[in-house]
Write a structure and sequence with these properties.
This protein is an alpha/beta fold. The protein has helices spanning 13-21, 60-65, 79-82, 107-119, 141-155, 168-176, 194-201, 227-244, 264-272, 292-298, 307-319, 330-345; strands at 3-12, 26-28, 33-42, 45-51, 86-92, 124-128, 161-164, 181-184, 205-208, 252-255, 285-286, 324-327. The chain is built from twelve helices and twelve strands.
């Protein structure tokens, strides 16, 4: 029986503190946000919408779970102490990625870009050697590792690195080269050996929702009766599979897969209802930077020119509980998140 509590009526900063003190709201993830309402959902049906502080007894444990701070992920600072979500910088060592294909294909260019991203405030660099844009052709693990290992070895000397891959052999090689996190768009489903690699390495993992395991055909499966619930149910199943394989929940981060097998309306609904994923007990990664729906809404056709819209989505995700955002425009996103946090808190964040 699938039961979900969706926190709603979110407040931030002084308004949240005042509402919690007045007994009208509950703190969200132990931070500066709060929720005043909850939507109770059982087996896909809405049981009721009610004040968070008046939740029926049988649902109270699930509601209280939403008030607890998430555990730190991959040894990184937690978003609450940092004063903003963590920023994962995108580094595509590919000739064909949708936004910056070819720009960082040369290892020297990739390393220069990584240094600039870290100086701009990136908390972790996500290195990938296979494009997963809609319709992209597959890349074998041998080619993928040849692209990324020289880059990962150098970056990992000074900063945290995640490897963006769906291939077990690439995961193993990248972890040996110094990567600390596996970021798999197929949630460890594409390669039957991937789960064992992550479990044996004892490393953190990001599980993303995508219908099927092939980016080339994922948009053909963009059909949902209720995309927020179906994504939540899917991720709950993958978390359970990981735990059964020896990967504890505290080493898992979840990603709703914006743009992966979703239409523009699906992406917007997932963004609006992002807090429902907090019920999974894992931190949330939001990766929407430069995606097509941003260009459609903002009227910007070229991915590299979608920075403003991407920042808007990152701030929206931060206000809805994202612990980390995956972005191309690091300096601008970090600045926007700091200003957002200061505006809702009434004081500048520290550090």
């Amino acid at each position: 029986m699938a039961r979900w509590v969706e926190p709603m009526g979110l407040l931030h900063g002084r308004g949240a503190i005042a509402a919690v003190a007045a007994g009208a709201a509950l703190p969200l993830e132990g931070g500066a946000a709060a929720f005043t309402l909850v939507r109770l959902i059982e087996n896909g049906a809405v049981i009721g919408l009610m004040p968070a502080v008046e939740t029926p007894e049988g649902w109270q444990d699930a509601v209280l779970a939403l008030t607890r701070p998430p555990q730190p992920f991959a040894g990184l600072p937690d978003a609450a102490s940092l004063g903003r979500p963590l920023v994962m910088a995108v580094l595509n060592v590919t000739p064909d990625s949708f936004s910056d294909g070819g720009k960082h294909f040369d290892p020297r260019a990739a390393l220069m870009a990584a240094n600039a991203m870290l100086e701009a405030g990136a908390d972790i660099i996500d290195v990938g050697g296979e494009s997963t844009r809609p319709g992209s052709p597959p890349v074998d693990a041998e080619t993928e590792t040849a692209r990324i290992l020289p880059v990962i070895r150098e970056i990992a000397k000074d900063a945290p690195v995640s490897v963006d891959t769906r291939h077990a052999a690439t995961m193993r090689a990248a972890l040996d080269a110094g990567a600390e996190v596996v970021n798999d768009v197929t949630a460890l489903r594409h390669d039957p050996e991937a789960m064992a690699v992550v479990a044996e390495a004892g490393c953190p993992v990001v599980l993303m929702h995508m219908p099927g395991t092939d980016p080339a055909t994922m948009q053909q499966h963009a059909e949902y009766a209720n995309v927020a619930l179906e994504v939540t149910d899917f991720l709950a199943g993958r978390i359970a599979a990981c735990e059964a394989a020896g990967i504890p929940r505290h080493r898992i981060m979840v990603d709703p897969g914006i743009g992966f097998g979703k239409t523009m309306d699906h992406n917007l609904e997932l963004l609006d209802r992002l807090p429902i994923l907090l019920g999974l007990g894992c931190p949330i990664l939001l990766g929407a930077s430069r995606k097509r729906f941003i260009g459609t809404i903002s009227g910007v056709s070229t991915p590299r020119d979608r920075m403003a819209g991407s920042i808007g989505v990152a701030v929206a995700g931060a206000s809805r509980g994202a612990s980390m955002v995956r972005v191309h425009d690091v300096a601008e996103t970090v600045a926007a998140l700091r200003l957002w946090r200061a505006s809702v808190a009434g004081a500048a964040p520290q550090g």
